[in-house]
């Protein structure tokens, strides 16, 4: 032990020169390293043969700068190493295994290892198998496996991947990442719900009319055609990020904020969701338009997309019914899309209206419902909307809000990856997706994936296809 909060670890990032490693993992790892919580070392492992330890350190230093990380005070990145795994053959993983052992000996490490798979999903199986076959999963310390999303393409592939993972690792060693769970505001959902008895007493079908979860992006494909065109919004966002948010909103009170207690409640929610009807899903694909005043091209025109046969959805909206005592009859509406009107991730909880209006003589027939809006990004905070009487002779009601914004009180929030990486080192699995959870989620969406439904076009810079309105049966989607 080093006297630090977390024992020493060797991180092995497979995909160590890729976009995820460069843009997200290394900046987060660097910030953790700066906080001096743990002594750790890292081997970046990529397919390229051109790097050695020194050129990899230079490459990472440049990447950190590009990502706006202040590196002016670093003397050296001598805790970073590079080892190629070339084409990913067993032979090359044997060489990686030798390097790991050599470094552990040289650095006097006890064998605590984290394998982070920052590679395309198609490479997950081969990488996991090779790590296991060369015996890297066994050491004198703790060995952990981190797998990025999407975990599988459907139920069957997720089950197969789980079986493969469990051939070499116990579930307690596996960290399936959904980076949304690392966002401070997402974690705060638990604190908000379970430390404010006032809201918890309103949190059911008795008081809530509907729940809308929106993740709207203004970005388009961003040169990810190779990945995205085979995936689409249902697999890329709904099955994981939005469904995770839904489970946190809908779950029962766990016995403690502890990995199995929380994940058990989330799985119960997933199992209570009724099969999704084809009519409760709307898909869309963006066409040309203007986003935030800038002209943008349509999905079909993006580099790498074959317009004549791409039916990939860049927008998806789904209506879910959670068939349990708390939520029966309350629609949970999930929607996400690229090239939408504005960047916004929010959960809007609409409460039931007053049963009758006593203000009819003032021409107020319909009183708008109270609403709680939890903004997860960009301006993290809450708004609770309620009615007030405007000062005047007769009754005129207007909507006002109680507003709370994180940045005003707490300043910079930690990046999701920073939180998740630290949890991995500490061995806390609460914010990671369990095997049965990922399968329960795929079970919900898999029947929809082979369904050749219409993909409606929507102009970039709008809120998506108008057809999505039908899911609300006469109401309108909440937008600020
Ligand atoms: C990723 C998706 O998981 O999440 C991307 O693959 C998406 O398509 C991204 O853009 C959104 O994450 P965030 O944190 O920017 O909301």
What value does the Rg take, in angstroms? 24 Å
- What overall geometry do the principal axes of the alpha carbons give? globular
β-sheet strand percentage: 15-25%
Could you describe the largest sheet, including whether it forms a barrel?
A: 10 strands, mixed
Task: State the low-pLDDT regions, or none.
Answer: none
Q: Indicate the structural class.
A: alpha/beta
**How many H/I helical runs?**
13
Ligand species? 6-O-phosphono-beta-D-glucopyranose
How many β-strand runs? 16
Helix/strand order, N-terminal first: EHEHEHEHEHEHHEHHHEEEEEEEEHHHE
User: What number is the mean pLDDT?
Assistant: 92
The end-to-end span amounts to 51 Å
Helix content: 25-40%
- Described by its quaternary structure, the protein is single chain
Task: Give a structural overview.
- The protein is an alpha/beta fold and 480 residues long.
- 32% of the residues lie in helices and 23% in strands.
- It has 13 helices and 16 strands.
- The strands form two sheets. Strands 7, 8, 9, 10, 11, 12, 13, 14, 15 and 16 form a ten-stranded mixed beta sheet that branches. A six-stranded parallel beta sheet has the order 3-2-1-4-5-6, with helices on both faces.
- α9 (232-250) packs across α10 (259-272) and α9 crosses α13.
- The longest helix is centred in the middle third of the chain and has 19 residues, at 232-250.
- The chain is globular, with a radius of gyration of 24 Å.
- The chain starts with 5 loop residues before the first strand and ends in a 20-residue tail after the last strand.
- The mean pLDDT is 92.
- The structure holds 6-O-phosphono-beta-D-glucopyranose.
- 6-O-phosphono-beta-D-glucopyranose binds next to loops.
- 6-O-phosphono-beta-D-glucopyranose (BG6) is lined by residues 217, 236, 345.
């Amino acid at each position: 032990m080093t006297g630090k909060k977390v024992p020493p670890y060797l991180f092995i990032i497979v995909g160590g020169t890729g976009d995820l490693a460069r843009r997200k993992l290394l900046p987060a790892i660097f910030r953790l390293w700066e906080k001096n919580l743990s002594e750790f070392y890292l081997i970046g492992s990529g397919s390229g043969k051109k790097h050695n330890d020194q050129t990899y350190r230079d490459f990472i230093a440049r990447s950190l700068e590009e990502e706006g990380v202040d590196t002016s005070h670093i003397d050296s990145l001598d805790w970073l190493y590079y080892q190629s795994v070339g084409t990913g053959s067993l032979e090359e993983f044997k060489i990686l295994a030798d390097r790991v052992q050599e470094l552990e000996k040289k650095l006097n490490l006890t064998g605590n290892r984290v394998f982070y798979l920052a590679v395309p999903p198609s490479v997950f199986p081969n990488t996991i198998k090779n790590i296991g076959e060369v015996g890297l999963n066994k050491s004198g310390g703790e060995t952990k496996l981190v797998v990025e999303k999407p975990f599988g393409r459907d139920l069957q592939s997720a089950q197969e991947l789980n079986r493969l993972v469990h051939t070499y690792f116990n579930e307690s060693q596996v960290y399936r990442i959904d980076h949304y769970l690392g966002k401070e505001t997402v974690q705060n959902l638990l604190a908000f719900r379970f430390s404010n008895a006032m809201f918890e007493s309103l949190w059911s079908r008795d008081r809530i009319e509907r729940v809308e979860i929106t993740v709207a992006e203004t970005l388009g494909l961003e040169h990810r055609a190779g990945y995205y065109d085979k995936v689409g919004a249902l697999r890329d966002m709904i099955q994981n990020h939005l469904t995770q948010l839904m489970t946190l909103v809908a779950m029962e009170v766990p016995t403690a904020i502890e990995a199995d207690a929380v994940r058990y409640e989330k799985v119960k929610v997933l199992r209570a969701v009724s099969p999704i009807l084809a009519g409760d899903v709307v898909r869309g694909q963006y066409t040309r338009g203007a986003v935030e005043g800038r002209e943008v091209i349509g999905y079909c025109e993006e580099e790498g997309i074959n317009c004549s046969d791409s039916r990939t959805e860049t927008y998806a909206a789904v209506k879910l019914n959670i068939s349990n005592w708390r939520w029966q009859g309350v629609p949970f509406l999930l929607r996400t899309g690229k090239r939408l009107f504005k960047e916004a991730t929010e959960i809007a909880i609409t409460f039931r209206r007053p049963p009758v209006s006593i203000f009819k003589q003032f021409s107020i027939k319909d009183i708008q419902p109270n609403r709680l809006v939890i903004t997860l990004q960009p301006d993290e905070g809450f708004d609770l909307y309620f009615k007030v009487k405007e000062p005047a002779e007769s009754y005129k009601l207007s909507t006002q809000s109680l507003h709370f914004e994180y940045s005003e009180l707490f300043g910079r929030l930690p990046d999701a990856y920073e939180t998740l990486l630290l949890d991995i080192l500490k061995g806390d699995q609460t914010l990671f997706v369990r095997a049965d959870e990922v399968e329960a989620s795929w079970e919900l969406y898999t029947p929809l994936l082979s369904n050749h439904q219409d993909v409606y076009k929507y102009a970039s810079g709008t809120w998506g296809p108008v057809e999505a309105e039908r899911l609300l049966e006469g109401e309108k989607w909440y937008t600020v």
